[in-house]
Amino acid sequence: MPLNRSLFLILFISSLYSYSQNIPTERKIYNANRIISSPKIDGIPNDQIWEKAADANNFVMVEPGDGDKIPESHATTAKILYDDEAIYVAAIMKESNPEKTMRQFTQRDNLNQSEYFLIDINTYDDGENQTRFIVTSTGTQADARMTGTNEDYAYNVVWESAVSQDENGWYVEMKIPYSALRFPEKPKQLWGIQFAREITHLNATYVWNYIDKSVGQMSQYTGLLTGISNINPPVRLSLYPFTSLVLDQFDGNTNFNFNAGMDLKYGINDSFTLDMTLVPDFGQTAFDEVELNLGPFEQIFGENRAFFTEGTELFNKGNLFYSRRVGSTPLGFNDAQREALENEEIIENPDKADLLNALKVSGRTDKGLGIGFFNAITDKQEALFRDTITGNTRRKVTESVANYNILVLDQRFNKNSSISLTNTNVTRDGHFRDGNVTGFLFDIYNKNNSFNFEGQAKMSNVNLPGQNKTGFASFLSVERTKGNIRYNLSNEFANETFDINDLGINFTNNYNNFSWSASYQIFEPTGNYNNYRIGLYGQHLRRYRPDVPVNTGIGGEFFGMTRKRFAFGGSMDINSEFRDYFEPRAENTYILYKPFGSLNAFVSTDYRKTFAYDIRVYFEEYHQSSQSDFNLSLEPRYRFSDKFNMIYEFQYSYQNDRPSYVNQTSDQVIFGIRDQKSIENSLNGTYNFNTNQGLNLSFRHFWSTASFLEDSYTELMGQGKLNPINYQITDRNNPDANFNIWNLDLSYRWRFAPGSEAVLLYRNAIFKEDKLSYLDFNKSLDNLFAQPARHNLSLRVVYFIDYNRVKNLFQS
After folding, report:
1. What's the predicted TM-score (pTM) here?
2. Could you give the CA distance from residue 122 to residue 364 in angstroms, rounded to a whole number?
3. CA–CA separation, 8 vs 95, rounded Å?
4. Which CATH number does the domain housing residue 62 bear?
5. Residue 97 lies in domain
6. What is the pLDDT of residues 632-646, one digit of tens each?
7. How far apart are CA 410 and CA 418, in angstroms?
8. Domain count for the chain
């Protein structure tokens, strides 16, 4: 049984490698001094108090080279001091040609091409979880939570910084309050620490503590910060009250809404933080990039709601959390669309469930145990029907009150390994379905950090009215993680009842897939290349029940970047015939696609230049078939000045003669030959008056048509073959589609105080979908503009209140 095999492997590997050791490397130590009076944070580190601080210098290269000493012309020195409230950081960065220092004005967490200084702080010194603070040469702040190689820039805390520049270089001062950090409550602190300087115009990055890129992860190479003692974690209570005004106009109707609410952050103790949103307002989230979706799977979107992106690294363990499930389309939405009786019209049928409140608690103890708890509740949704003859109305519940929960336990050890247990569950009051998923995960490195063993075992349980469905899935991977030559072997399995779609997302189940890869890469410049990587890969996909092959493929890939930051690469693969069990939308039925090959290539020029571009081309061709795919992406960018930047993207795709699902009757699955064409134009422009005020324009127009060839309709038969039939097309069952969507956002953002901001947003949106696939681009665009446009103007103001500042104010 797969379950027994997976549990055996988990227990075996866990016991075999639970005593792995840390990466052997020489570690720098910095001893911080306590001060009584704090320095002025003005970007000019000439206060006499800085003379008490030791120098952290002798930086070495991490990119593109490996350990080369920083030139004297760009010598860099960092200093740290601390008091009862915060740590203070100063950096002195020499520059022999100050006019070459790249300075691009950006908003928070956006670095673009500015040069910057950063400090990584790991308060538990576990080699994995750390907080990153960055200041650019123009003074822009960026902060992130780091977990291994993952950088979560949705994480935002309040801290101070300032920069200055003169003929000798540029300078940074930072004040990081203890309220922005989580650290153990003990007399002496031992923190992992790393400094880095990005010299963009030299295409070089230097760090204080040496990093061996050929072994392990960069987060495992921090230096050690000592000297900090007898500090007490402050009361970490921050309030973010907000108000929003919205004016919405659509098709002659005008609505005005006022909303007020609050987000809250509270430090439960030195390790754990409670995040809560009360009366949430997501009216100013970015628009979703909706496309014409004719496939068997739902379209997924990125998360644009800050509460669901910030500090969620624990909840994403095992990929069981797709946050867009919370507040998504009610389960009974489509049923209500179909169930209108004769002479009835639908007056209301909400396409989103209202979020009532949400909270998350997360943190990590000084023993390396991470604990996360997430909860969200959405309101009941109903469809309203009205009889057009009698005027009577009736309601149908499309989703009951839903409760979403996640619990995660993640034990880290040896600065490179972890074992995790995670559970997600959704309860819907028994009206529709309840879901529960439990996963056991491990990610373990051996003694020399040369091999990684990763595995997952997941059990799902779905309660439907009158039915209980249990499923299982597993993943096992062994990877070489040291040296120039690396390789990987993995297996991914799921039985036919595995289902995590109540709070997660999985498109397919009932598979038993094997994959492998091997590569050669360099870690320091060689010849004309700063780095390059050559790889081979392959896969063999199988159905679990019945045990039959689905596809086998093999390919190769290349990536390279020259010393002048010109990147290029691509991949090429060949594949056997493919049994697609999902396109037919019927159980135990598949369509057989011919063997095919694909070619992918891209180039990317130096972003440091005023003008740069990216080009990507993809082509797929099927053997002994007219079916093919072609995709082209062009993305030029132009930096008009240090304040004004614009990026345009054009995408074109054409799918030719693809056998595609059309309809299903009681005894037939109907297919047709489809051509699909898509054109997308998007534009993103920013003008930043300074690092706290800026304008942003986001525009996207997506047009796609799907045309089915006349007299090409077939019935899907056994063994994936198609048999021609006479299928009558009417206005009701016509599968052709013409899809047009237009979105424009223009916003002004003003960060008027630390942690506080006001955003004025104008939004314009138009949508049109019909069956007129024969129309060309211009005609379709004319039809789109003939539709009523939605105009939305909103103002949202958020104010940051720190309990400690308020307390001190009242004490004064």
Report:
1. 0.90
2. 12
3. 58
4. 2.60.40.1190
5. 32-226
6. 999 999 999 999 999
7. 7
8. 1
